[in-house]
Design goal:
Layout: E1 3-7, H1 19-28, E2 36-46, E3 49-52, H2 68-71, H3 81-89, E4 96-99, H4 106-115, E5 123-129, H5 134-143, H6 146-149, E6 152-158, H7 180-195, H8 198-202, H9 209-214, H10 222-229, E7 237-240, E8 244-245, E9 249-250, E10 253-256
Parallel strand pairs: 1-6, 2-5, 2-6, 3-4
Antiparallel strand pairs: 1-10, 7-10, 8-9
Domain Extradiol ring-cleavage dioxygenase class III enzyme subunit B: 4-232
Organism: Rhodopirellula europaea 6C
InterPro entries: Extradiol_dOase_DODA (IPR014436), Xdiol_dOase_suB (IPR004183)
């Protein structure tokens, strides 16, 4: 099974028909139908590692200030307690809590609604442990690779460039609009992806001003490291939705395998 990192962008993408959601719809046509989905979302940032283990996860509206239609949106995919337990068992050196209270946040459903609009594939979310290093997250991704062999689609959801404090609200609709530092950061990451030089991506915090502006907090960046950890030979990487929006957000997405 391939794996995906998706730049999820605004939760409004759930309701819109734009070039990015068209990219999601196109890429899923290249992927066999999965038995289940494990999603690592930027929006479940916790102390410790958790997986959702309920049979029917709720749709979480973890935002404010958007139209009522978005707050009412539901993605009623079933959960999979079995996948949650199997995921925890794959990382015996990392305590993984079986969570009964979270659900699916917009990092998951705003994209999955375009990949699998019928919401008929079981979905489990895995949280990001905010106390751990980037290398920890990369190595944890490596340990999950066996799930690909079992027909599980692993989706990391975030944004490689994600600085909401510097969003250019005056140019939200301008195509492929990025500030100079955002273009530099995007080009740096894309070059390391092409080279397979993941050490530089793991050690991103030492890569200068552009990356520090692109990744002011780790939450939206770390899901990429999980997906890169899943790679094995002869997997290839394919970029899609490779654009910057509003000056300071990258929609760049990666198909692995």
């Amino acid at each position: 099974m391939p794996a995906l990192f998706v730049g999820h962008g605004s939760p409004m993408n759930a309701l819109e028909d734009n070039r990015f959601v068209q990219g999601f719809r196109s890429i899923v046509k290249t992927i066999p139908k999965p038995k289940a989905i494990l999603c690592i979302s930027a929006h479940w940032y916790t102390r410790g590692t958790k997986v959702t283990a309920m049979s029917q996860p709720k749709t979480i509206h973890d935002f404010g200030g958007f139209p009522q239609a978005l707050h009412e949106f539901q993605y009623p995919a079933p959960g999979s307690p079995e996948l949650a337990k199997a995921t925890a068992s794959l990382v015996p050196k990392t305590p993984v809590a079986l969570d009964q209270s979270w659900g699916l946040d917009h990092g998951a459903w705003a994209v999955l609604t375009h990949l699998y609009p019928n919401a008929d594939i079981p979905v489990v979310q895995m949280s990001l442990d905010r106390t751990q290093t980037p290398e920890f997250h990369f190595e944890l991704g490596k340990q999950l690779e066996v799930l690909r062999q079992r027909g599980i689609l692993i989706v990391g959801s975030g944004n490689i460039v994600h600085n909401l404090r510097l969003v250019d609200f005056q140019n939200m609709e301008r195509p492929n609009h990025g500030f100079d530092w955002a273009v530099e950061a995007q080009n740096f990451v894309n070059q390391q992806l092409a080279n397979g030089d993941y050490e530089k991506l793991i050690d991103y915090s030492r890569r200068g001003r552009a990356i520090s502006l692109a990744v002011p907090t780790p939450d939206h960046y770390l899901p990429l490291l999980y997906v890169l950890g899943l790679q094995h030979q002869p997997d290839q990487l394919q970029l899609f939705n490779n654009e910057l929006v509003a000056g300071s957000i990258s929609m760049t997405s990666v198909r692995l395998g």
